[in-house]
Structure formats: structure tokens, C-alpha cells
Amino acid sequence: MRQVGIVGVGHTKFGKWEGTFLELITQAALQAMDDAGAKTGKDNVIDQVFVASMGAGMLNRISGSASALVDTLNIRPAMAECIENGPASGASAIKLGYMAIASGVCDCVLVVGGEQMRVVSGWEATDFVATMLHPTGEYPYGLTLPSFAGMFTRLRFEKYGETSEDLARISVKNHDNATHNPCAHIQRKVKLERISDPRYVDATSPMVADPLRQFDMCPVSDGAAAVLLVAKDKQEELGFGHKTFARIAGIASATDTHYVADRADPTELLAVRTAAERAYQMAGMGPEDIDCAELHDAFLILELAESEECGLFPKGEAHLAVRRGETEIGGRIPINTSGGLKAKGHPLGATGVSQVVELVRQVRGEAEGRQVEGARTGLAVNFGGFGNNVVATIVTTK
Amino acid sequence: MRQVGIVGVGHTKFGKWEGTFLELITQAALQAMDDAGAKTGKDNVIDQVFVASMGAGMLNRISGSASALVDTLNIRPAMAECIENGPASGASAIKLGYMAIASGVCDCVLVVGGEQMRVVSGWEATDFVATMLHPTGEYPYGLTLPSFAGMFTRLRFEKYGETSEDLARISVKNHDNATHNPCAHIQRKVKLERISDPRYVDATSPMVADPLRQFDMCPVSDGAAAVLLVAKDKQEELGFGHKTFARIAGIASATDTHYVADRADPTELLAVRTAAERAYQMAGMGPEDIDCAELHDAFLILELAESEECGLFPKGEAHLAVRRGETEIGGRIPINTSGGLKAKGHPLGATGVSQVVELVRQVRGEAEGRQVEGARTGLAVNFGGFGNNVVATIVTTK
């Protein structure tokens, strides 16, 4: 199969975006194009643009934003589509970009993920997010993502002996990492005792969905991220020869039951496991080849569960590795060096692209202040619904 | 490049759907799978599902519907994404299905387009549709699709001498064709004098956007359509050897300025021309190879304009061909044998898939009552925004 890789990355500051959705995705797109040295107008070489967003329609009342972006970027008549797969929209769009180039139809594809979700807050934000649950079996009954995550956490705690303090440790780690990421939403350290000591915790990190507290889950963020994909055999000809080729060695997705209640064992994340297995197989790699990982820690329990489903740790042992500091920068397998969804923020459609941007920065050796020494290969897991649709991506310079 | 073709088609009755959105897309999907003989559960061979919809989020408050569909169809862990490109979402999804197979990542892809838009009506429907206009430069100012179509019609009338009666002729033709299509929304003939005679017309076909009247534009419909794509080299092995392979010889899209006001000549539909040229080039074909065409007649003037931009007629002469009956079934180049968007209906995300379903029925010789004799090759044009993003598809059994 044709080799496909990334030669440009862009990433807005996550947090509150004061402009329009179109301006948001344009900023990330232009950064990625500038990074790669991509030109516009008659010199444009981008064949296809994918915009990933879950809420452009529901929250921002926009359809066809990919076409508007092409026009704004002055790269007409490039092809353009919008991709939606809940919070995994971003990685899905990269997967489709990969296919577009591997097929030979395109040589160069721009993928932009963006979400402007802080136009809603409180129950409206919770309700918006809940639209990714089953449209007839879950959402209409008022089920929410935190409620599933709380149940999932409780079941895992009972099964594997994880504790709330383990989650707090991950929180501390991801907040630490985020202080070195200028694009992170929350660039502030937290102290373990402040979010786990029973004397303070009800005030500092109130209960949301028992046993999950506020600091066990991600904030609501606006933001956008972009990657420019190119075929290896066209990199030089299209003018990107000077850039590191961060090869997409493996990219795959998988679905699990949409009804969470239908799962034989609700503590298993089958779609994560299957997507990761497929990505490893495509890459001809295994967990032992991964130098750093960006995992979808919308709820911190997911960082633990995903790291196990991806084979980075044996089942039920990830929290022990966390206690030993193995997932910190400098540890055996650093996880969420970007700050993760927890501290970097989680603009839904942007997240999958943002994760891959972080991997590219790591394998390029450009992750200033949070660089994993000698990182050559990274894994990203982008998690849709409550695990009903998951995308795994492996980026490498090997 | 790997050959990709269609071995199964499905199509719900367009009109008012009383069930849920998920039931709607499921019905079309199952029809396409049954048509091809595709199995489920352990015997599933579908690698990827694409669901095309413009309003699943905005109108039905659903995200990730493709994952829900995979679960409902019992074809887990098939990959799944939703595709949005305004009213061209359907053909966009087929394009991505083509790429998925041509890349070698997938061998079999199910594409379903669906829209349940009759949950809104009147100004709410107009406003929903208008979200496909420029998100900052057009939509916020209250511009609507009929207003652009009215302007476009007026300019063309002045330039080429087309008349309201020419549009009425197309209306009569498409309504005639729809009476032979059991899936059409409106299966009723109209008489030319009823919708063009000044004595009746204000009552029978009231003015909407001068010179466009009600019978010059499509109704608001619910509906879904589906196609099952497979690689030629896997057709036999996957169990579809008994079905006609309706090959996708060419499929391509193109964008034009999103701001209609930015177009040098607003009577030109550059994206249609470019998409068609690209599709012809990919197919190694030209307009002379086309036996029948499904054109995007959301407004009847578009059927004329698109037929010219695709090279079926010289510029400014399509209405003369209509007057001579050349676009009727039995004519030189029958257009919209399905009834077109005008009479078959236009559930936005379904339309592009529905057009290709009609081409497959024609090239298979299964278009009962409306069959174009000896049809081997068909062209579809699916039009997004006011021509800002257009997909052209060529299906053939040659």
C-alpha cells in the first residue's frame, strides 16, 4: 500500500474561542499549511479537505463547513467533506484522509478537526454530548456520558482494586504535562492532596457521578487541530521534501455495541482492543514498539482501561504502573504528554487530530518541555460514544 | 486502480416517515444488503459503513448514527463514519466508499444516505436548508436557497431565452417519470397548462422567488437510500458473484466559491463542470457515452444548467432539447427517469445515493415502467450548497 504521512501540523489554543467556527478551523488549517509550506491559489496542491466536527450543525448551525473552509483558504476547487463520529470524528477524518491518498485518488489531504462547544454550558452541554449515546435506547431516557463513566469506574474499582487516588495521580500527571503545552486549555498544576484528601476534596473536586469527581473528567473546550497528509512518493514533488515524514504506519477503527447494556462484560472496551489490534497489524508492530501514547482520557478511568486494551499493560495492572510513575514523561511509556483531554481540553471533533498532532511533535523531537527522549513511534486512541466507535492510529519516523 | 462497483441497492418510499431516523436508514440498508445477499453476524463481510445526512444532528439530535446502524444491522465490529456535505452528502459518502475500497483498506462498504426533515416545516425547513449557505457571509443575513435559485433563474432567462414554460415542461416530465417509480414522494402527473397557464398558475403554483413558483422546486421529503459497494476482485469470494457489477467508472467532486456573490459569472456552475470533467476523465468517457442522467433538480433551472455544464447539451441550448422532448424517456438522453428531486422528493442526505440507485436500476435493466432501452452507462450530479460543492458519478456495466 502507498505510504501516507504527515508533513504539517496546526493546533489552536484550546479553551474559549471568541471568533466564529469558520475562523477557528481556518486558524488550525493555516498553521498546518504554514508548517508544511503549502501554498494557496494556483500553487495549491491540496486535493481534498476533511473537516471533523460533532457539533457544527447542532451547536453552530453550520452545514458544509468543509466547503466554506476551502473557499476561505483559497484552495478551490479542492474536494471537501465533513466527517462526524462523535468525539472520535477527528481520527476518523484522518483515517479517511489516509484512504483517500492510499487509493491514489488524492496525493495531499488536509484534515482539520474543530469544535466550538462553549456556546453551551451546564445541562445543555451534557445533553449535547449525550446525543452520541444510542438515539432510541439511551439518549431519550436521559442517560449521560458521566453516568456511564461513573458506572464503568465503579465496576473497574471493584474488579481491579483501582482507587480514586489512582485517578487523582493521573490528573496530577496530565496537569503537569499540560503546563508544558502552550495550546492546553488548563495550564495549571494540581497537588495530589488537594484533589484526593477527604478533608478538601468535596470542595476542590465535587462529586459528579459517584465515584467520579470533577477532577476525574475533562473540561468543556473550544479548539481546532489540523494535519497535512501527503503520499511519500509525492512528498518531494509537492514541495514538502524539507519536512520530516511522520508516517501513518497503522490506522484503524472498530465498533462495539451501541447499547452499553448489551455488552457481555461492561468493563471491557472491545472496540479499543479491536481498533488497536488492527492498527498494530497494519503497522507490523506491537505494544512494545510504542514510545509514547495519547489516550482518550475524557474520564481518567479511560486512560487506565485503554492503556490495558492496547496492550501497554496487562489487564488490571495499569494503575500499578501509574503508581510507579511509568506513564510520566521519563517513565517507561509516557501517556498523554500533551496534557490529555483532562488538562489540554476536549473540543470533541478536534481531539483525534490534536492527539495525532502531539504524536507528530514527539516523533519530530519538537515537544519542547515535554519531549519523550528518543520518541520514534506513538499511538493514539480516539474514543467515540461510550466506546461504541474507536479509532487507533500509529505514527512513526522509523 | 482497483475496480469498485455496486452489487446491492435499497430505497425507502420517499415522503413522510413515521418511524425514527435509525429505523429509516436501517430499512434502506437492509434492502441493499438483501438485494446483494449480504449476511450479518459472523458471516458479515461489510468492512465499513458510511451514513450520509445533513440534518441528523440539527433536526433529529443524533450524532454517531453510523455506529448505531452497525449495531442494529448486527455487523459489528465494522468501521463506521457519518458524512456531511449538505445536499451532496450522499454522493460524497459513495466517493469515500470508493476510496476506502480502492485503497485496499476495505473490500466491501455499505453507504446509506438518509434524511428525516419533515420534523420541521415552513420557515424552519427553509432555515435548516439555508445552513448550507456561507456561515458568516450569507446565512446570518437571511439568505435562502430559493432566493439564490430565483436570482439564478432570472439571470439565465435573460441570457439564454429560457421561459417559465420550459421549467413547467420539465416539471411535467419529472412528474410523469415519478408515476412509474414506486418510491417517489409524489406519484401524480401534472398537466402543462395547469402549472403554466396564466389563468390558473397563481392558484396552482404560487410564486415563491420570482420567477420561481412552487412547481419549479422540490418538495420537503423524508427518505433513505443505500448502495453496497464491493471490489471487483472480491465480488465472487464475498458471495456477490450472482449480482450485476455496476461499476463506478468515475466519481469526483469539486468546490466553487462558497460566497455566491464572489462568482465572476453567477450563471456558471463551475463546480458542476469541474466535477463532471474529473469524473469523465477518470472513466475515460465523455458526455457521448451517457445513456441516462440523474441531475440535481432541487430547482428545475438546475436540471437545465447542469445538463449543459456536464456537456450533454451546448451552453444555453438545454431548454431547446427539452422542448423537442430529448430528455424524456425514449428521447436522446433521458434525464431524471426516477422523477428527479422534483417529484421523487429530496431528503437531502439521501438524494446522492438515491440518484445512484436509479442509475444502477437503469443499467441493470430493472427500472420497470421507466426503463431507458439499452442503458449501460449513467451519470449523476449531486449538488451541495448553491453549487459550492458538487459530486459527479458515472456508473456503467460496460
From TrEMBL, chains A, B:
Domain of life: Bacteria
Coiled-coil residue windows: none
Residue ranges occupied by any Thiolase N-terminal domain in the UniProt entry: 4-232
Alphabetical list of InterPro entries matching this protein: Thiolase (IPR002155), Thiolase-like (IPR016039), Thiolase_C_2 (IPR055140), Thiolase_N (IPR020616)
Pfam families, alphabetized: Thiolase_C_1, Thiolase_N
Domain named Thiolase C-terminal: residues: 252-395
Gene Ontology molecular function terms on file: acyltransferase activity, transferring groups other than amino-acyl groups
Entry protein name: Thiolase family protein
